[in-house]
Amino acid sequence: MDLSFSPEEIAFRDEVRAFIRDNLPADIRAKAGRVAHFDKADVVAWHRILDARGWAASHWPREHGGPGFSPVQRYIFMEEMLRVPTPEPLSFNINMVGPVVYTFGSDAQKARFLPRIRSLDWWFCQGFSEPGAGSDLAALRTSARREGDEYIVNGQKIWTSTAHVADWMFCLVRTDAAAKKQEGISFLLIDMRTPGITVRPIITIDGAHHTNEVFLDDVRVPLANRIGAENKGWDYAKFLLGNERTGIARVGLSQGRVSRAVSLACGIEGLDGSLTDDQGFRRRVIDLEIDLKALEITALRIIDRQRRRNDGRPDPASSVLKLRGAETQQASAQLLLDAAGRLGAPLDADLAALGGGFAEAQGAAAIHLGARAATIYGGSSEIQKNIIAKAILGL
Ligand SMILES: Cc1cc2nc3c(=O)[nH]c(=O)nc-3n(C[C@H](O)[C@H](O)[C@H](O)COP(=O)(O)OP(=O)(O)OC[C@H]3O[C@@H](n4cnc5c(N)ncnc54)[C@H](O)[C@@H]3O)c2cc1C
């Protein structure tokens, strides 16, 4: 097993690091690590800079407009961005719907959608979860009935991240109510401007408007916007959810939080720096650094296995990365908040304008509260444990 980077991979890491240093706009850099979510404008701006370099669609092969990165390059690329952290190329476009379109879409769909998905001219959101269909996604009930050359869609989606700023939604709908639940599902692309769509905000505990409810009432969707065969949507969704796992450990993000927590603990205006003498705090920093090193090595082992297998299939061991990655994201965010103390408590970003310690500690509470969701979205921790028990431990 080879867990070290080759000289070419190290040169690539240095190239990515230098590109971020030289090209990340100053206003976005100023927010790095201080906000739970970047604004749409920041995500679009950075995405376009990466696209101009040919790197935005980091997962895509060259033939579809991607850079053709190897799994190791993809890992290095993502971790370098998370370490800052920069905004990430929009996952809904790049990791999720893009690969579905170039793998299962028609030539006309590829020509129409792929360039706009890659460039972020069209921002996609993910309409999968429904009330009563989250972990058990195949229980979804949103229906699509055929009428001429259209589907008439009715139902409700929930927790739809960024639906309020999205141009399109990729959506799972039930097209055959009589079939076994996994067999009656289709995969549609829905223009968010279509009459009959209502988006209602869900404001989460971190004070953010990131998630939404989406109501679909007699929404007309052309048959031409269905990807692949009718009633085969579950296959495409499984493929998509497998891709969602790539880079899920987010080691760089947690490492950045630990570093920031240590620098806050060393003393900022309004805090005396005595936390660095606290044995309990020191122990937590060391434990987290050990956990992050173990997670990094686990991620590299899984990549090495993928590199040697080279069949593009997701590895069930990536559930370990999701499970432990989410837990360390939470632990590092908790450490950051504890280091920031009362100065990090305000959710109101305007308090940072007071300067001094408030500016240094900005965002700690929002990041901590936002991280609570990491063990839920993208497949909850309990579901990952079920996969690990079955597919890895053979229980
Ligand atoms: C911040 C955030 C953003 C999200 N963004 C999106 C999005 O953009 N698009 C989208 O489609 N969805 C999104 N989701 C939804 C997310 O995918 C679901 O919340 C997740 O799949 C869990 O489903 P649920 O909420 O219905 O909980 P449930 O499935 O009802 O689970 C409730 C509890 O029961 C446990 N549980 C369920 N089944 C089992 C089992 N078989 N064995 C053991 N324990 C079990 C779960 O682990 C959980 O603790 C988002 C969620 C959050 C929190």
From TrEMBL:
Gene3D superfamilies: Acyl-CoA dehydrogenase/oxidase, N-terminal domain, Butyryl-CoA Dehydrogenase, subunit A, domain 2, Butyryl-CoA Dehydrogenase, subunit A, domain 3. Residues 231-393 form the Acyl-CoA dehydrogenase/oxidase C-terminal domain. Keywords: FAD, Flavoprotein, Oxidoreductase. InterPro entries: Acyl-CoA_Oxase/DH_mid-dom, Acyl-CoA_Oxase/DH_mid-dom_sf, AcylCo_DH-like_C, AcylCo_DH/oxidase_C, AcylCoA_DH/ox_N, AcylCoA_DH/ox_N_sf, AcylCoA_DH/oxidase_NM_dom_sf, Mycobact_Acyl-CoA_DH. The keyword Flavoprotein applies. Its cofactor is FAD. Residues 125-219 form the Acyl-CoA oxidase/dehydrogenase middle domain. The keyword DNA damage does not apply. Residues 6-119 form the Acyl-CoA dehydrogenase/oxidase N-terminal domain. It holds the Pfam family Acyl-CoA_dh_1. Belongs to the acyl-CoA dehydrogenase family. PANTHER family: ACYL-COA DEHYDROGENASE, ACYL-COA DEHYDROGENASE FADE29. This is Acyl-CoA dehydrogenase family protein. It comes from Xanthobacter aminoxidans.
